[in-house]
Q: What sequence folds into this?
């Protein structure tokens, strides 16, 4: 129906927003953005009820979302130690978007939101940086900076997982989408990258460029399972706008949190 609202903002207590996507032949898809995973059997209930009054010959679809469905994910991460590495920082801005947004700022904002979600669920989070600084020292070389991130993770023997957060960039502003990377130094690196990819694709709504093998330094030299997530192309004007939106950053953080929880859950 062309008169249907295409997006409905909610209060965020359980659900953040509903998006109605028109399809052909008078059909529509409903996308639900929630603050917790809706895939488990106890997360929701869906059924139909007869219409009333002038709508008595129709049926209404009822979807009940249960607020405590995220408990399983919280329990999954409780007691585990995760390293989060916000890409770039300090003297290294990373990529810069057409409107001036810096990769280092987006990476830090999403990483801090992910840290908060994990901490709230009882996990221990090691951050390679929590501010706009170089990890090694001010003005350090790229190689020194990468090693400092690996060292920050290695300093915590209890660390079990390493996540590096970045934004992509390309000379062609039409390049778009998200992707995740791994280096198969353990049996679990690819699995972690795959979980991150699935959750970012489901939550972020960007084109999925897939799960890719790479020789990135932090992936290859960290002793624990690791993945690097490219959240989107900051060089793409539309994606730059999304990546700098706090509401979208929270959606990305929740996706990263769910992927980490699923890693420990499975």
A:
């Amino acid at each position: 129906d062309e008169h249907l609202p295409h997006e409905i903002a909610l209060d965020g207590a359980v659900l953040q927003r509903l998006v109605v996507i028109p399809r052909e032949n008078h059909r529509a898809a409903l996308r639900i953005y929630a603050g917790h995973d809706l895939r488990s059997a106890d997360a929701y209930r869906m059924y139909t009820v007869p219409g009333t009054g002038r709508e008595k010959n129709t049926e209404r679809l009822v979807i009940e979302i249960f607020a405590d469905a995220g408990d399983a994910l919280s329990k999954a991460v409780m007691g585990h130690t995760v390293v989060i590495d916000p890409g770039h920082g300090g003297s290294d801005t990373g990529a810069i978007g057409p409107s001036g947004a810096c990769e280092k700022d987006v990476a830090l904002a999403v990483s801090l939101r992910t840290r908060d979600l994990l901490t709230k669920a009882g996990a221990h989070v090691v951050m390679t940086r929590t501010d706009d600084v170089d990890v090694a020292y001010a003005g350090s070389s790229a190689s020194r900076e990468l090693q400092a991130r690996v060292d920050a993770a290695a300093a915590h023997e209890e660390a079990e997982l390493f996540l590096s957060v970045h934004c992509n960039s390309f000379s062609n502003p039409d390049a778009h989408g998200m992707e995740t990377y791994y280096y198969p130094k353990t049996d679990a690196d690819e699995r972690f990258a795959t979980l991150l990819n699935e959750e970012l694709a489901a939550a972020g709504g960007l084109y999925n460029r897939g799960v890719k093998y790479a020789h990135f330094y932090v992936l290859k030299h960290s002793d624990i399972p690791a993945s690097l997530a490219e959240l989107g192309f900051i060089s793409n004007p539309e994606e730059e706008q999304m990546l700098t939106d706090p509401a979208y950053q929270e959606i990305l953080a929740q996706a990263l949190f769910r992927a980490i929880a699923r890693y420990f859950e499975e």
Q: What stands out?
A: The CA atoms of residues 91 and 139 lie 6 Å apart. Residues 246-265 form the longest helix (20 residues). The radius of gyration is 20 Å.
